[in-house]
Amino acid sequence: MKQSRPALRYAKAILNLAKEQGNDAEVNDNMKLIAATVAESDDLDAMLKSPVIKASDKKKVLDALFGDKVNSIGKGLFSLLAENKRMSMLESVAKQYTIIFDYYKNMQVATVTTAVALSSELEAKIQKKIVEITGNSATIENVINPDILGGFILRVGDVQYDASISNQLNELRREFDNSHYIPKI
């Protein structure tokens, strides 16, 4: 991860510029789009990291690909990275931006693992519980894992709350294994 420190510097500069212009949330959406697009396309990632392809050609591809989907700050990032010959850092910069934007807005990502997809009313209850526990709101990311049988596992930052049925069964199993009950014969 030799690119993480420079990517963080670029991301901080972009956030400061976006805050000055008052469109930091729009830039966050743009950065999520850029990061997702690069992560999904192996060809785009390979093109950005290729030392053979000129930086100006990489910028033309990005301008054509994102067109009017990205605002002027995103297009300025393409130009800046092309000028500094650091196009390979585009995905890292976009990811770092979303991380520091969430920190700036006191937002966290809460991962909720359930056996089935969350309903909107259940998601609202979980959001209320997250605010109660941490004091901040969070973006809820639902992971579906049928192995937990039922209940849920909530993870916010370093805190994990496991209310899954599989965990309760495991605790019950451990309790039986550790009991010193000897039946009378």
TrEMBL record:
Keywords attached to this Swiss-Prot or TrEMBL record, sorted alphabetically, are: ATP synthesis, Cell membrane, CF(1), Hydrogen ion transport, Ion transport, Membrane, Transport
Q: Kindly list any coiled-coil regions of this protein.
A: none
Q: Where is the signal peptide?
A: none
Q: GO CC annotations? A: plasma membrane; proton-transporting ATP synthase complex
Give a single Pfam family match: OSCP
Topology in the lipid bilayer is annotated as:
Peripheral membrane protein
A GO molecular function annotation here is: proton-transporting ATP synthase activity, rotational mechanism
**Which compartments does it reside in?**
Cell membrane; Membrane
Family as reported in the entry's similarity comment: Belongs to the ATPase delta chain family.
Per the entry, what this protein does is: This protein is part of the stalk that links CF(0) to CF(1). It either transmits conformational changes from CF(0) to CF(1) or is implicated in proton conduction. F(1)F(0) ATP synthase produces ATP from ADP in the presence of a proton or sodium gradient. F-type ATPases consist of two structural domains, F(1) containing the extramembraneous catalytic core and F(0) containing the membrane proton channel, linked together by a central stalk and a peripheral stalk. During catalysis, ATP synthesis in the catalytic domain of F(1) is coupled via a rotary mechanism of the central stalk subunits to proton translocation.
Please name the PANTHER family in this protein's record.
Answer: ATP SYNTHASE DELTA CHAIN
Supply the name of the protein.
ATP synthase subunit delta
Q: In the record, what lineage is assigned to the organism producing the protein?
A: Bacteria, Pseudomonadati, Bacteroidota, Flavobacteriia, Flavobacteriales
